[in-house]
């Protein structure tokens, strides 16, 4: 019983400490000139998506992947794409070779990198694309994913 109370207090304290960071990150995302990603935080992104009723945009990458680096240097820094994704999605970048990455890669049946995925707030895959894409194509991809909300 004492152990359960300690765990509950620890979780409450952690929540209280992390909440301001979440609010700051969200404010930065709205004004940022690039897509703001949570790093390697799939479960936290999913939790935020449920609370905010937003879709999750996942950049599934590997550190050695050239097209992945090109996405980060160009497409994800496009002002229009950044404004759209930061406003409409919880964005998370996942190194698919670290932490929970390998198990998620297997679960999501990923074959190549980069793979860009969109999940609904319940964690169900809505849409994905594989490979490098330009900012206008990324915007179309995001809008197509959001259009599934209406169905």
TrEMBL record:
<protein>
    <submittedName>
        <fullName>DUF255 domain-containing protein</fullName>
    </submittedName>
</protein>
<feature type="domain" description="Thioredoxin">
    <location>
        <begin position="17"/>
        <end position="147"/>
    </location>
</feature>
<dbReference type="InterPro" id="IPR013766">
    <property type="entry name" value="Thioredoxin_domain"/>
</dbReference>
<dbReference type="Pfam" id="PF13899">
    <property type="entry name" value="Thioredoxin_7"/>
</dbReference>
<dbReference type="InterPro" id="IPR036249">
    <property type="entry name" value="Thioredoxin-like_sf"/>
</dbReference>
<dbReference type="GO" id="GO:0045454">
    <property type="term" value="P:cell redox homeostasis"/>
</dbReference>
<dbReference type="GO" id="GO:0015035">
    <property type="term" value="F:protein-disulfide reductase activity"/>
</dbReference>
<feature type="signal peptide">
    <location>
        <begin position="1"/>
        <end position="25"/>
    </location>
</feature>
<keyword id="KW-0732">Signal</keyword>
